[in-house]
Amino acid sequence: MRVYQTSDYQAMSRRAAGIISAQIIYKPDCVLGLATGSTPIGAYKQLIEWHKKGDLSFAGIHTVNLDEYVGLPGTHDQSYRYFMQNNLFDHVDVRPEWTNVPDGRAADVSTECARYNQLIEDLGGIDLQLLGMGHNGHIGFNEPAEAFELGTHLVDLSESTIQANKRFFASEADVPRQALTMGIRNIMQARHILVVVSGEDKADIVLKAFRGPVTPKVPASILQLHPNVTLVGDAAALSKLAVAGEPICG
Q1: Is 138 a catalytic residue?
Q2: pLDDT tens digit string along 39-72?
Q3: 103, 143, 149, 234: which is the annotated catalytic residue?
Q4: Contact 14, 49 (CB under 8 A)
Q5: Could you give all domains of the chain from N- to C-terminal order, each with its CATH number?
Q6: d(CA 5, CA 197)
């Protein structure tokens, strides 16, 4: 695992965007696995800026997003489809039909999960998977559990995740209780995984995920077993990892 420490969120975002753009330049028809949440927004803004300068084109890529709330249409301002349109897709030259997000309103959840798994396989797998990480170690919506879920599946969101997300909704009651998410197998089959973390409040879980035992109770800990992981975080988020002796690059 490569670990890059930056001074702050802005520098973290630029470093992460640089890794994503390098993937696109190296393989213009690559498959990007994308994430939502507050942490990747800065990286998306940087990618948009480079695109507008003419330095980066998304015209040949396909994207697959990690997850989507159950019950929300793509037009809902808290759906992850809406998030991606607003924070990236609408501002670059990606082909709309080549952007993919699980259908949270699918009539048959099992069929939708199977479709999404097949989609990823048909695309040839994910070249670069971007991940954030929740305070409980979730990646995508793979919550702490007794076993690692393999493929795309329906998940009941944990109380800590609901509490973390309620700030985006009018009330806690409006927060969806379920989501569709790629499973651990989908994520681990990506050829390169890029994890972004920011803030002192992530320091404890970063330490557990990358220096603790591999356990489904800390889903991100499975990343220790992947051969090509890059962790980019600001000094606050990586503070305890540095104390634990993890080799860190500036």
Answers
A1: yes
A2: 999 999 999 999 999 999 999 999 999 999 999 9
A3: 143
A4: no
A5: 2-243 (3.40.50.1360)
A6: 10
